[in-house]
TrEMBL record:
One term of GO molecular function: zinc ion binding
Entry keyword annotation includes Metal-binding: yes
Residue ranges annotated for the A20-type domain, each copy included: 12-46
Family matches, as Gene3D superfamilies: 1.20.5.4770, AN1-like Zinc finger
Domain called AN1-type: residue spans: 108-154
Swiss-Prot/TrEMBL keywords: Metal-binding, Zinc, Zinc-finger
UniProt name for this protein: Zinc finger A20 and AN1 domain-containing stress-associated protein
Coiled coil: none
SMART domains: ZnF_A20, ZnF_AN1
């Protein structure tokens, strides 16, 4: 079949590299750029539009800009596409060294251990109502001498769930 009659285009001769020379392949839909470079370029254009409109708002002193200001601002913005350079990150530590700490003690987030036998419990630890973490042997309150008063807690729960219902007294006839 002839491609002209159907309206299809012939496939491209081969894959084209990104015009920013980043090493990835580009496509005609993204102006011969890879998806990352195209997204970065669109983000830069959008930021430039916002910056130009905010500068126009400051100069004009108005809180809202008209469509004409945005059109004028977009025509004056010139963004170079081929200026993509790799950024290097400095090797400075993010946190201060141990000698520079000023009273802020970070709690050690080490392995979770049983409060009674100091056994590592990992994900299988049981939190008690007294606020401590225990292994499977010491998880019950009678096994670790729990200071939590279960009796008063139960009485309070029952009192909240069952309010006192008292009918009014009948008048004597």
């Amino acid at each position: 079949m002839d491609h002209d009659k159907i309206g299809c285009q012939a496939p491209p001769e081969g894959p084209t590299l990104c015009i920013n020379n980043c090493g990835f392949f580009g496509s005609a839909a993204t102006m011969n750029m890879c998806s990352k470079c195209h997204k970065d370029m669109m983000l830069k254009q959008e930021q430039a539009k916002l910056a130009a409109s905010s500068i126009g708002n400051i100069i004009n002193g108005s809180s809202s800009s008209s469509g004409n200001d945005l059109l004028v601002a977009t025509t004056n913005v010139d963004i170079p596409v081929n200026s993509v350079e790799p950024k290097t990150i400095s090797g400075q530590p993010l946190f201060g060294s141990g000698s520079e700490e000023i009273g802020e003690a970070k709690p050690k987030d080490g392995p979770k251990r049983c409060s009674s036998c100091n056994k590592r419990v990992g994900l299988t630890g049981f939190n008690c109502r007294c606020g401590n973490l225990f292994c499977t042997v010491h998880r019950y309150s009678d096994k670790h001498n729990c200071p939590f008063d279960y009796r008063t807690a139960g009485q309070d729960a029952i009192a909240k769930a069952n309010p006192i219902v008292k009918a009014e007294k009948l008048d004597k006839i």
